[in-house]
TrEMBL record:
Organism superkingdom: Bacteria
InterPro entries linked: Amidohydro-rel, Metal-dep_hydrolase_composite, Metal_Hydrolase, MTA/SAH_deaminase
Domain Amidohydrolase-related: 55-414
UniProt cross-references to Gene3D superfamilies, sorted A to Z: Metal-dependent hydrolases (3.20.20.140), Urease, subunit C, domain 1 (2.30.40.10)
Highest classification ranks of the organism: Bacteria, Bacillati, Actinomycetota, Actinomycetes, Micrococcales
Name of a matching Pfam family: Amidohydro_1
Species annotation: Lysinimonas soli
Name of this chain's protein: Amidohydrolase family protein
């Protein structure tokens, strides 16, 4: 028998088009997919969920997260980019065991799922051995969320003078064949490449050729801080490496010419507003991307310094962009009559645009017939969104992870009435603490409590 669920009388943000809201609407889910959207649908043998008064929307899509860092969350909240690179990339990262990578990915992915992120691009670039990669993949699979495992080249891409026992090209081929040969399943694969900012032209060409040979999408850091002023997109163009299967992460300091090149090539972009402002990457490129015809998407980036939910990310992004849009008028004493960037568009950045960037736009990212039932339902009992006057404003400005009451992935209810289903919270905490304790104790000078800053002279 098929598995059927009928959601009744919800306020549905479809994200299929900007501003579309369906009130008092039913959603029929069958075998993991949305099969009918309408009113007063016949229930038949379906399980009925009365969601009257509740916002139901697509699950969020995080297009770039170094999930392995979740066990050292907030350790870098007061760090500069220089300290982050020293403390994490040439510091704590080298003490990770495979079990620590598992704990980091398991904790981080569950945190994302708990807050309504149903699809996660795991930018996994601390894979010291094949066993680390296996552990990262297993953790994603164990959560039951939709994820893209983006295989990274290890810490060498950040200039770390550390030898690695892992042959990353060989390991990527192994993983493609062993885990992701048929491109199906909730967890799929991409390549997280070093890119022209962080390696030689020869190595960069090799990396892009490997991704093409493995038939995988690419996600790559560009335009973050002073590195981004080196013309990375121009270099990719000159080497004939541009395509519509690339997501460019950050983009803050790219030139207008480079943004035009990305747009013409059909590439996508991922904005990480919290990290970019803290670590000196430059102003988040949300508005500039739009001006050049590129739909932004959002990413958390690193929970070692900032929060891991999409609500905070959306607020940071829209607040910063509105400030930038208002700044010229403030300088001239003018008053802007209408705001340019709407809450409805920001919700689309965090859902369908993110799904498109992850190569999953035909699978998830919007509430449409034929798509996977990757859904989030917010709690209508909260005074923060009562009365419901503007669903988009409620999601962007008033909602938070605590309002995520139910989450569905491929039609399966993975969070029910505010609790993740089948998750042993005590075990998750135990794994996270054990990994944190090992990694922190292994690095000389590292300490908890908020006062530790890595030694930049070492």
């Amino acid at each position: 028998m098929s598995e059927r669920t009928l959601i009744r009388k919800a306020t549905v943000i479809t994200a299929a088009s900007a501003g579309e809201v369906l009130t008092d609407t039913d959603i029929l889910i069958e075998d993991g997919k949305i099969v009918v959207i309408g009113r007063e649908l016949p229930a038949g043998d379906a399980e009925i969920l009365d969601f009257t008064g509740r916002i139901v929307m697509p699950g969020f899509v995080d297009t770039h997260r170094h999930t392995w860092q979740s066990v050292v969350r907030d350790i870098a909240s007061d760090w500069s980019l220089t300290e982050y690179l020293a403390g994490l990339h040439t510091g704590l990262s080298k003490y990770y065991r495979p079990e620590d990578t598992y704990a980091g990915n398991y904790l981080g992915a569950l945190e994302a799922l708990d807050s309504g992120i149903t699809t996660l691009v795991d930018w996994s670039h601390n894979l010291a051995t094949p066993e680390h990669a296996d552990a990262a993949i297993k953790a994603l699979q164990d959560t039951g969320m939709r994820a893209v495992f983006a295989h990274g080249g290890g810490n060498k891409q950040w200039g770390a003078p550390l030898p690695s026992p892992n042959n990353h090209p060989e390991d990527a081929r192994r993983i493609r064949e062993q885990y992701f040969s048929d491109n199906t399943g909730l967890v799929t694969m991409a390549m997280a490449l070093r890119g022209p900012q962080f390696t030689t032209p020869e190595v960069n060409r090799h990396d892009f050729a490997l991704a093409k040979d493995l038939d995988l999408r690419i996600t790559v850091h560009v335009g973050d801080g002073y590195w981004g002023k080196s013309g990375p997109i121009l270099k990719l163009r000159d080497d004939g490496l541009l395509s519509d299967r690339i997501t460019y992460v950050h983009c803050d300091t790219l030139s207008d010419e480079e943004l035009d090149i990305i747009a013409a090539s059909g590439g996508s972009a991922s904005v990480s507003p919290d990290v970019e402002m803290q670590m000196g990457h430059g102003f988040p490129a949300t508005g500039r991307l739009l001006e050049h015809g590129i739909r932004p998407t959002f990413s958390i980036d690193v929970c070692s310094s900032n929060g891991g939910d999409m609500f905070g990310t959306m607020r940071t992004a829209i607040g910063m962009q509105r400030a930038l849009d208002n700044a010229p008028a403030v300088e001239t004493g003018e008053v802007i009559e209408r705001i340019g960037l709407s809450c409805a568009e920001v919700v689309r950045f965090a859902t369908i645009d993110g799904a498109n960037a992850a190569g999953l736009g035909d699978v998830t990212g919007s509430v449409e017939v034929g798509k996977a039932a990757d859904l989030v339902a917010l709690d209508d009992r909260s005074l923060a969104i009562t009365p419901m006057n503007n669903p988009f404003g409620a999601v962007v400005y008033a909602a938070h992870p605590g309002l995520v009451r139910d989450v569905f992935v491929a039609g399966k209810r993975v969070k029910k009435d505010g609790q993740l289903v089948g998750v042993d919270y005590d075990r998750v905490k135990s794994l996270a603490v054990a990994a944190r304790d090992h990694v922190m104790s292994a690095m000389p000078g590292a300490s908890l409590g908020g006062g530790w800053h890595p030694d930049l002279t070492a």
